[in-house]
Structure formats: structure tokens, C-alpha cells
Amino acid sequence: MPNSRYSLHQYSVDTLLNWLKTEEIVIPEIQRPFVWSANKVRDFIDSLLEEAKKLEKSE
């Protein structure tokens, strides 16, 4: 029997955002030789939210 180190759980974007807001989870800073500008971060989050909306509509 293989040992699984990971498990899959599905949570809504709203739940994840709430956990971030209440600091139940935190996103660590990633060590990279560059840092995204505020605009690129905003665009990335906007794209995630847009895709989440599309998924909700398709269900």
C-alpha cells in the first residue's frame, strides 16, 4: 500500500479568502530574484477570480 503525502480538498474561493483574512492560512513570501509589481499581482488575482466565476457558472 503506497503512502500518500498529499490529499486533495476542494474549497471555494470565498472560503480561501476568508481564511486569508482571518490569518487561518498565510501565503509565504517566495524567494525569487525578482518581485512582481503591484499591478502584476492585481492582474494575477483578477485572472484567478475570473476563472473561478467561470467555473461557478458552468456547474
Describe it for me?
There is one protein chain. The chain is mainly α and 59 residues long. It has a domain at 35-59. It has 2 helices and no strands. The protein has helices at residues 13-21, 38-58. The longest helix is centred in the last third of the chain and has 21 residues, at 38-58. The chain is extended and about 40 Å long. The termini are far apart.
Itemize the secondary structure elements and their pairings:
Blueprint: H1 13-21, H2 38-58
List its salient traits:
2 helices; mainly alpha; extended; 59 residues
Question: Class by helix and strand content?
Answer: mainly alpha
Radius of gyration: 15 Å
What proportion strand? under 5%
Instruction: Give me the number of helical elements.
Output: 2
* Order of secondary-structure elements: HH
In brief, what are we looking at here?
Helices cover 51% and strands 0% of the residues. By secondary structure, it is an all-alpha fold.
